[in-house]
């Protein structure tokens, strides 16, 4: 916490030893020869007081005799500091010691009176600052409003000082009044870092731990903690593959730990939780434990690293109320300029289909094309050239023909969508109790124009701390979370908007078609094409009755007692109960559309032809017990801290799912209205963990640091004989800067520490009953005596000796602070070996009749490094302090298989020496310039196995390799382009051409403040990562994938090869070539570089001076404007896909990403 806030309320007006209720706290101390510093430590042990002082100004190196039985602290302090030149001030639990300001003496000749006010950088008055005339004994201190008055010499220089701030010298000159601003000296307070079951000073850390505080993200208008952490902690890799409201980011610490996947353990105030269900405004700090020495204390669940979130607690002082809000608008982060000409959309699709299968996708005749061409420039419908025409079909029946220029994209998607957030907090305290209550509400509209999807979430947290006795404390931390996401459409596509191939929502919406006929009925089939328009997606949306809701409710409460048993010995015990419930509902109805004028029919398409209601409820009930003790001992230069404890966790999961068909109402979604088939299913599982843990720290003179920690853990996920494992760790640090030989550099290098750690962790990330041979149940798909019979499937074989995966990490690190800690550097290099990963065991004979059971049979090695560099400084502009900071983080890792049972080196499986993420592909050598060149190549190299669509073309001419086709190099000289034996020794013509793993993740955080104005910017990106678009990446391949594409880029014709455009990006136009032909297989020509840099945040704010607010009884008021994801710089060969959209789905069909513009205000009373 910045000292500005820590000391704001410490002093009261013009006092040296204030009288407050808290001063009546009493202690008992009896010593004949006791050092003053030891006396202060003893008072801190017996009370909640914290002494704050500057070691350079306050000398405590003297011994005293004291005999105090049940005496007030204020009385003891008065006695020991009387006539010593040291004074103190008390407020709440804080006691500040300082030099006594000098009073004027008679021999000084005083010529003038100078008055002034001393404030911090935000305009808050500094109470109790020392103001001394340089060179003589003449001084005073500021009052409660920061004001002072002093008689001084005519040419005096005032020296102003205050603990936690840089000293300042001010010439009086001709001034009668001064306004002095002190700049915070952050290096005067040791930064404290949250670690497992406690805290440590950062300078004493020997493990790899990174921490950010609320100061690092408090000014950003975000609702998800994963957003706050992206790009600010080295090697904490946060990715968002979807822009769907409420979507959580994926987390990864230091790369791959196992081929079986996994994510970090997230602990919120010591209890497992979900990172993005926390109110960002509730968070005080986030610590990331990266290596095994830092994580070992959490055992079985910490193999993928640990994220410790500490929420804010109540502070001493009067009741304070705070409120903040944010209103924003979200727009698309990618290009949305698509062809809306019915003529050109149809022609491009039809040409692609014809060159592949010999017919037109739309089935339009030449006469139809003439009609489309006549309307090609009609941006809106012209009554003389209507977009929907009624004509006769071959049977003489009326039918619709569509000749529109319709913008389907903007029909479905909104150009901007609103979001809002509101936060409120109330806190207060008295002598015995502190309390904090916070609440938040946020909402965000989705991208749909029709029956917009909407996400809402509510958070509430209460924290109470109470001193039951002088040695026993009680606290309660309760959190409630609720979210709802309401959506319309089809469950497997427009819920995710861009959908998946099973429902094809972005297909068959040709610009020539329209959603409604002239009579207002919904469109369906075109009459000349057997394909339905858009597979009926717009019908489902327009109905407003096909909809669903996802709702989450979570309740967590923790009760904790802390007892101070003996001097330096405390015991803490807590119990947590958590209940998490997920409610899901989806309603389908039968959709009607107009097949012919005046004829309505029900759709025969999948979910559009069924009237059905589905409801599911799943719940988790979770119990956690922790009990641990802390002991501290200081003997001269030796300091020892010991901690040991017990942990037990139990979780039970239950699911009930019901569905029913043929309801009596289309609008009342109640299973009581079901008249048709009803189905009920469910499931349940449970697991438990039990462990004991310890940590021991030793510190010699602040120079030599040692730590050992570990955990003996047991899990219910493994067989009885292999459930328990012991996972120890060791680490050491050497603060070279504290050595005598380093003394000459201390004025430039404040801290220089090297550290090393070694540790092991267990991974229990397997299914709940992986070691039990279980039988699944179900129903047959056909009726027997009008009933679907229940069936039980044969059990799959399991290995009886399943046990822990083990992760062993070696970490070497360095921390350096120079130039009065303005420049800080931290770096780590690590090697992590994961042993005994679960994978398929040895291949069994075919007569065994079942697949191989999983065994602990694979190893993985990950190597990586991470760097963090920060600069902070302050200077004055126009006599007002200007502060600024820059922090850069950079990290990298690679993972390689070191053991795997694949003696043949088959490339479709893991193999020893494989770097995870490898992309094997062909080498393409551009386009054939002429058909003659293509035929000459075909005479020596056979590409038919790759050019499947060309080979299947309907005419001999189209079957030929021709100008505009791709030339594929025959790297193995076999004369045939193929995969060979698909092994390492014979990969055919494929080679490693790229890698899907992200490399060189970086972030750059900048901030500045001056005269109430604040500015911050965050850049984040990836330096290297490859992606090969899958065969369903329609937004990349367009008509080359499926030649009935809806959203064709406006410049797409310039990207297609033709004789007039030989240097195009795409080859000769053939549909389906990206589905199962030369574009569907990875190759160097269309391999994408996902490297990107994003301006994640840009915020400009202004805090009004306190002098303007005091009359309104407002302590703080800040307004700001902000933007998220404002700019993206990428190497992708398309600006219609956000690089992050590929992270979750290789087809990049996820919910569209967005950029946000917002305004907001923060006010405190």
Automatic annotation (TrEMBL):
Keywords, A to Z? Cell outer membrane, Ion transport, Iron, Iron transport, Membrane, Signal, TonB box, Transmembrane, Transmembrane beta strand, Transport
The organism of origin for this protein? Macellibacteroides fermentans
**This chain belongs to which protein, by name?**
TonB-linked SusC/RagA family outer membrane protein
Membrane topology, record value:
Multi-pass membrane protein
Name all Secretin/TonB short N-terminal domain ranges.
49-100
**Compartments in which it is found:** Cell outer membrane
The organism's superkingdom is given as Bacteria
PROSITE patterns assigned? TONB_DEPENDENT_REC_3
Q: Which family does it belong to?
A: Belongs to the TonB-dependent receptor family.
Q: Which GO terms describe its biological process?
A: iron ion transport
